[in-house]
Design goal:
Two copies of one chain form a homodimer. A seven-stranded mixed beta sheet of chain A has the order 2-1-9-8-7-10-11, with helices on both faces. Chain A contains 14 helices and 21 strands. Chain A is α/β, with parallel strands linked by helices. The radius of gyration of chain A is 25 Å and the shape is globular. β18 of chain A pairs parallel with β19 of chain B.
């Protein structure tokens, strides 16, 4: 499949000045392919097409959108190894990781296909007419409908699973929303390959032009123009806090403000309770470093702070962690920009007088490698200096030494909203864990025990979201079946003649949907 | 029960300078009772108590909160006729309306009790451990949890059903959120009576102090301080667009922004299709005026614009409407402020060169009466002048005469987001209606046929919400069982030992909740 740096608007490939290059992550050198930057006119055209496509696409039977999503998965697989090779070059991520990510991406598309067929997402609720009541009650029928065209901003760190055909795109398309993707400049060739695959399926299935468009580019103005376009009705974003807040501000300043689902930053606290430390300090130390350094620490769920009570057991943990860090060959980071942000974040911690270095990874004379860093500080210092609780994107973490459980609880209470919160505990820790549980659930979208936060399962029970500022909307998840709900709103139909009702609400139930009638759930056929 | 103008913070009655008076709606004169204005310290204290009460209250078994809500309904009934008498004086609304509204208020509380017992609101979703998978999947369990303390701003036009113990309070308490009510100064005595009833139940049941507080007052600063308090996690509001937008701005500017569910304004378009007009013009005219003038037009669902194709049938409609308006004795409006806003809104329409008066109600020499007003304008003028599409709160409406169906569709397409959209149609109109349906559902939360938008049923299928600016969050409803969802967020528990899991997620299912396990809904016992 061709990569030529085009902007892909509905059926058209638009060639603009080839103003930016695909960069090889490992070397920082150009990969030889230049890419066009989408213009304000391209944004307007893509949004107009999406708006035109909306009604037909959102009214498709669930089966039609389900098989469309499955065809997308097939088309992504059919791109073949060039997709993996391109992504490897552009991101520096290893083959196994990218093959796994491709599987996850296709799995997500297929999961939403299954979800569409189940039909719970429509939440069909019918309150039949009660003519005998005084006053009479009308016939009231409620269902979820798609919000409208959605702008999706892919992430640098998941060039497939959180990018052009990632979770935001899959859930928005599942909901019936056309999607306009702002392509991430860190993997433009990967993005173009996936976008072309999506467009080939849109075309082959005769879906309306505008169901999908792809706008690559590097400028913040491009993203802002997309969010500001009045035809866009919601935004999905995964990236930095500054980026997410900037887009949220644009969305809030529109004549019609729209929801922004921005996943922005998280330091994913890991709490080591005394019993767990006493019995497992060494294993915890090496397990922690495995999670910290996975993918060069470039995960939203990377553990950026460890909270524990000071003492010899914690020293054992720190020693084991330091040894594990020393054994790791520093991996390539995604981009030189991420690498330099990581280096300044680490430098700020290194030079903070309240912080001591526990361990640094092997020094590498090669640019763009992530030399892991583990620091420590005291609870009072962590609480006093908000910068110590800010995300450093990459394999950097701060161990907070607390005098006692009370100090630990104060540190936890002082945390911002998080994607995850982890507790390591043994049977001896259950009283302390019971105290922490209600607090942790106010802080995070996912609370886990005796594991590590990296590795986000794609399944119905998953919540990959959390209170602000980990996301801009703590009532949502960007991973798992529940993610479709972000792009839906309820509509009630009152006394509408059967022939004018959407199929989902018709009494004969042509789509065989699960329904709640007069407050009672129908038994499924 | 006593009305003494106190601020009610947890268990304490606080007496402040009695700075404002309860006003008799019919006369504009003081009713003799003065009320204290809550201070910034009162806000902070109420929010601190609510925060302290949150964990225990949100973790109560559904049955405990359900019976609490039922006890609230009983306590409101037990206030007796003084509640109705006080509300009649303060609002000018007639007895029958207020008795009906009390029934609705208690009905809402009981409806949420039933909803709590059903348990669907928790959305318990369990994905069991898969140790054999590579990599193994952990045990993942998701449920909805309460957001935290909620600030509720009652509406002037429903002194019971959208006020101190109204739908926002009922759904927030149902969700497990403590509530701090900013009392509306248009019915301070009514508010105090209901607040005291709630507090007596909180006390009698031994619930934590702070589950409910009542902060009466007149100043915008009071409301802003409440929304800005970091312990408040969501806001429910029914009122003006200016008020709702101001609170939304305060919420967005917080260190941790929070959701604001503001129901703000709507002109509830009514579309008269030609077949319906041909067969029923006169009945439509009088039916329309019945909806327009109900409760002096002081409903969020009041029909503020009628859209139809020009011609003799429409003239018949207009004549019938004018006759109906002439027959109505102008009712008292809620407050002198609402009355004077209504008068200026009507005056602006009267003096607009593109607008003609079809009918005015009987002139009344008594202040604060709503003299109904029906205007007409041309489609092009309506589209050209945005002020013609702004809500005039009260019995005022604009008939938009369109040259043909295309012009009518353009007028509909130009409308802002609405709570409701109504189509009158006969069998002859089904093609036109079929074209309008997809458009109307992008514009409104409720689409209805051959009826009138006033009269909002409280039931599972209801959506009383709609795209901005009818509300600040078009993904929600403030009426019906779905309203509880506004105050919940999902949390995932991963590999948490059974004894540390919330009861709702324990394998033994002690609350006998409906659950989805491994993507399949369990059959209910």
């Amino acid at each position: 499949m061709l990569i030529d740096g085009s902007i892909l608007i509905g059926r058209r490939s638009v060639r603009r000045d080839q103003s930016f290059q695909a960069i090889e992550a490992a070397t920082g050198k150009s990969l030889g392919q230049a890419f066009g930057e989408a213009s304000a006119e391209d944004v307007a055209e893509a949004c107009a097409l999406a708006d035109t496509a909306f009604t037909a696409f959102s009214n498709l039977p669930p089966e039609a959108r389900a098989s469309f999503l499955e065809a997308l998965a097939d088309a992504i697989v059919a791109i073949g190894d060039v997709l993996i090779m391109t992504a490897m070059s552009e991101t520096g991520l290893p083959r196994a990781r990218l093959e796994g990510e491709r599987g996850r991406t296709c799995g997500q598309l297929r999961m939403f296909a299954t979800e569409l067929r189940k039909g719970e997402w429509l939440d069909v609720t019918i309150d039949p007419v009660r003519p005998e009541r005084v006053p009479p009650r009308g016939d009231l029928r409620r269902m979820n409908v798609a919000l409208g065209p959605v702008a999706v901003f892919g992430a640098s760190n998941f060039p497939l699973a959180f990018s052009v055909a990632g979770g935001d795109t899959a859930s928005a398309l599942a909901a019936g929303c056309p999607v306009v993707v702002k392509g991430h400049p860190a993997h433009p060739g990967t993005g173009e390959l996936v976008a072309r695959a999506i467009l080939s399926v849109v075309d082959a299935r005769g879906l309306a032009e505008g169901v999908f468009s792809f706008l690559p580019g590097t400028s913040n103005d491009l993203g802002a123009a997309l969010v500001a376009d009045p035809r866009i009705k919601a935004v999905g974003f995964t990236g930095s806090r500054a980026g997410g807040l900037a887009l949220a501000a644009v969305a809030a300043a529109r004549d019609q403000p729209i929801p922004v689902y921005a996943e922005m930053s998280s330091i994913n606290p890991v709490i080591l309770l005394p019993g767990a430390l006493a019995s497992d300090a060494e294993a915890l130390g090496s397990g922690f470093v495995g999670s910290l350094t996975l993918g060069a620490g470039q995960f939203c769920t990377n553990p950026g702070v460890v909270i524990a009570i000071d003492g010899p057991d914690l020293d054992r943990f720190a020693t084991a962690a330091a040894e594990a860090i020393a054994g790791i060959e520093p991996p390539v980071m995604l981009t030189s920009g991420i690498h330099s942000s990581y280096c300044s974040g680490v430098a700020a911690l290194e030079t903070n007088p309240a912080v001591r270095v526990i361990a640094r990874g092997q020094a590498m004379p090669v640019a763009a490698r992530c030399v892991a860093a583990l620091f420590e500080t005291a609870a009072a210092d962590f609480l006093a200096d908000g910068t110590l609780g800010q995300e450093v994107f990459g394999a950097a973490s701060v161990l907070v030494r607390c005098a006692d459980f009370k100090a630990m609880a104060r540190v936890v209470a002082g945390l911002e909203g998080q994607l995850t919160a982890t507790v390591h505990m043994s049977a001896a820790d259950s009283d302390a864990a019971a105290i922490l549980m209600p607090l942790l659930r106010t802080k995070a979208g996912r609370v886990l025990a005796n594991g590590w936060p990296t590795g986000v399962e794609v399944c119905p029970a998953m919540v990959h979201g959390g209170p602000f500022p980990s996301t801009s909307d703590g009532r949502s998840t960007s991973v798992g079946t529940l993610a479709i709900g972000r792009f839906l709103r309820p509509v009630c139909y009152q006394d509408i003649p059967e022939t004018l009702l959407p199929a989902a609400l018709q009494t004969i139930n042509p789509w065989n949907l699960p329904r709640t009638i007069d407050g009672r759930r129908e038994v499924q056929r």
